[in-house]
Amino acid sequence: MLEARALRKTFARTVALDGVSAEIGDGEIVAITGPSGSGKSTLLHCLAGIVRPESGEVHFDGRRVDTLGDADRTRLRRQSFGVVFQSGRLVPELTAEENVALPLLFNRHGRRESLLAARSRLERLDVAGCADRRPGELSGGQLQRVAVARALVTGPRVVFADEPTGALDSLAGERVMDELVGTARADGTTLVIVTHDNRVAAYADREIALRDGRPAGVIV
Amino acid sequence: MRMLARGGSRRERVRGRLMTAGAALATFLLCVAANLLAFGLGVSVHPEGFLVQTRIEYLGFFSGRDARLLTALALALLVVPTMAFVHQVSRLATATRERRLAALRLAGATPREVRLLGAYESGWRTLLGGVCGVALYLVVNLAVAGALRGAVPLVPAAQLVAILAAVTLAGTLSGLMAGRHVVTSPLGVVRRTPPAGPRALDLVLVTVGAGLLVAGFVDRGDFLRVPYVAVLSMVVGMVLLLFGLVLGAAWLIRVAARWAGDRTGTAETLLAARMVGADPRGWARALSVVGLTVFFGAGVGAQQGPILLRGYLDSSWAVAYLLVDLALLVALVTSAAALVAHQAEDLLDHRHSFAALAASGVPGPALGRVLTRQALIAALPVCVVSAIAGVGVAVSSIWDVYREVPGAFAVAAGGAVLMAGIGVLAATLVARAARPILRRTLRPEGLRDE
Amino acid sequence: MLGLLAERPKHGYELKREHDQRLPGARPLAYGQVYATLQRLQRDGFAEVAETVREGGPERTVYAITGEGLAELARWLEQVETPAPHVSSALVSRVVVAIVAGGAADGYLVRQRAAHLARMRELTAERASGSPAQVLAADYALQHLDADLRWIETAMERLTDLKEEMDA
Predict the structure, then answer these.
(1) Chain A, nearest residue to C112 by Cα
(2) What is the ipTM of this complex?
């Protein structure tokens, strides 16, 4: 369903990706692992259509993604993808509920239905109590779960998570992963997680291991 | 202190020079304004040492007292954006300076010392600028006086010193106040959240400022028989009034933003409203000059109404009005610079969350719309209220004239709407100009966690 | 065993059942072991026979902890587990040998990682639905497997340095 072939990407003078290929099936949960600087985030950005590789191809549902223009790729991300970042990256001036409702509002849904959908998402992730609070008032674990809710609220086909537990202690991280993986399995969403933590990688069905921008050993 | 003042980067030196230039300009303008007002004194000293009666015929346009008054007003108007610009520069300089000095904080320098440093840096720069401005003015004055053979009076030295002192004081104060908004911990720079709601202090500021301003205008040199007090009172009054109005505007903006945010069904408006509502004071400061321009523009327009309708317009009046309009335009353009600076700072603070939104599929144009709507939400209430206030003040001051020419109300109302519209339009255009900055912020490199 | 008795007096069957339940990671106890331990405790004066109970089956002896037993328990709890001074894991030997043998190291390490990860996946899945005691045990195993993996990662990065040192 989601496929990358021989991707190559350079930033300034550093080669981030050098001939990386990957294949992710529908509903799979895959971890992209490796030490820092191995190109994991770059691979994620290429797969999600955030960044265009210099050479190589990215396919989603059989269609080529890397040759699309900026507007088309943005639309693809809006309709089919969700993204979770390491530090949540919510808008600090909005409440948790408004933050989660934002993608729906950008998709031109009404205010009431967007806020209702946001609240039910927050309930599913067990952070309904945070709905009316701002990101500044939430703990790291609560923040991340709100960020996960925001990524899931549009019902995406694929969710990309870049070090979702990076800034959390192990118990908070565990809760976030439990909720993320639990919801993904229940909805049949494909999950692509970038992590350097083996315990997070253990939540996935398999891993894609990178080292210095290249695949490390065999894809397990 | 001096040791701490060294070590600034190139950007800081540029900012310093900008501050000096701004202060010089402000002082120059004030001196010229004082000069125009000083005509009423009648007697002046020719450089050759004998008393000369002011030869008013030589002055052409400037012979009319009201024309001089209007021009003085226009110039005083220009001082406001200049000082606001100086204040904005000193705020930006503060943030950079505090980052630079964060290491010193670890070594034990107190916030008060850092703030005093800020005041010292701003103060000495404005003093330098002020001196340049006075020097420039003296040169121009002597040249003109010489050319017109004594028709133009020289402003007494005491008045010049007073203006210099006032500008330097304002500069130092602005440096001190700029430090108040930024709190440094040894770990970095953090914005202090401003208190909500209008405080009693705001009202006091507005009243005192307005009072001083009016007093300065009304007496025009005969005040207590001590001439320079008029100018000083005007300057101080203006500054206080400005601060008071800005704080009041902040409250207005906060209310408007909350109202808009609670009702809207669009993502762009929601984001814009909440972002503006979280920093009403910053927006009020950035829009202060726009608001004042609208205020004066609407007021002058309301004053023009009966004159136009009665056909009393003559060439000198027309020139005076044109000058005032020109001054307003310049003020608007200067305020645009302040607005862009403010939005750029805002974007920088939000780059992480905006980058995340872009990554999850929000198109660039939509985020650009957020910027424009921010300007709209902040500018609309301020401009509308300013226009109404301007018209109100003008109409009430020449009430009898208005009673005779009821049609003038229509002109006044039209003028108010026009001015408010121009103000809002200016703000939104500036927001559009900020889009390239937005594009730069959204590049994927911004997705790396620093 | 003393810990379990400290809760309340129990008979042998109960003790075995509770031990297996609360220490799911450890190997299950055999009855013979239980009674041998109980005898020893009695001999040392830490436990005593409280009563004999009949519950519609064979007679069961209920044991209770003594005052000395409680003191001994307290003393044992105060002791600290000495961190192992020697690195005796088979994993380490295999890795070092693989590196020395040259060439085979990379492939072996990748396979070892795969095996560790597979076991970690099982444990993670189990942990989601286990009792608190099972979660604790799973955590212990997971963190140790993670530690092994991180050491393997370090070893791979030090591969070149290690080779030079060994060749010298």
Answers:
(1) A220
(2) 0.88
